[in-house]
Amino acid sequence: MKKIVVLAVVALFTLTGLSFADSKVKGAVINKSNVKNAANIAIGKDNTANMGSVKIKDSNVKGAVINKSNVKNAANIAIGKGNTANMGSVNVEGSKVKGAVINKSNVKNAANIAIGKGNTANMGSVNIKDSNVKGAVINKSNVKNAANIAIGKGNTANMGSVNVEGSKVKGAVINKSNVKNAANIAIGKDNTANMGSVNIQDSKVKGAVINKSNVKNAANIAIGKGNTANMGSVNIQDSQVKGAVINKSNVKNAANIAIGKDNTANMGSVDVQ
Question: Which of 31, 68, 101, 183 gets the most CB atoms within 10 Å of its CB?
């Protein structure tokens, strides 16, 4: 196990971003990345392509986790099986974080693509899985002239969204996303396409869940079987929330489409199951 004692960890990475695994960090984890005119590509099996992102796995962090990324004229691509493509995102898995998790990302003229089986494409998003967070989870993302695409089977495409799964959060979950002239697409079987949304599944949240998203001139599409397309929505499933659930979304000149069998399309909605 790596033991890291710091006041601040600052990464100015062009492509890979900042990653911690099986670590102990005392202090803030800060990633400030500027990506311009670049391509980040992983091809084959079990690939991960990270661009201007922060990844924390099986770790203990006592301090804020902050990602500030600016991505322009770039492509982030994972092709094959079991791939993950991250662009301007924060990913926390199997970890404990005592402090706020903050993602501030600006994505412009960019493509984030995962093609194959079991793929995940994240653009300007915060993803927390099987973790314990004591502090606010905040996502402030601006996505413009961008495409976020997952094609194949069991794919997930997230653009300007907050996703919490199998986790405990003591603090507000806030999503403030601006999506303009963008396409968020999942094609195949059992796909999920999220744009400017807050998604909470199998989790416990003690604090308000707030979604303030502005979507303009955008398309959110899921095509195939068992697909879900969410745009400017709050979706809570099999979870416990002790606090207000607030959705303030503005959707203009946009298309939210689910085509096929057993599909769900949500636009500017609050869905609690």
Answer: 101
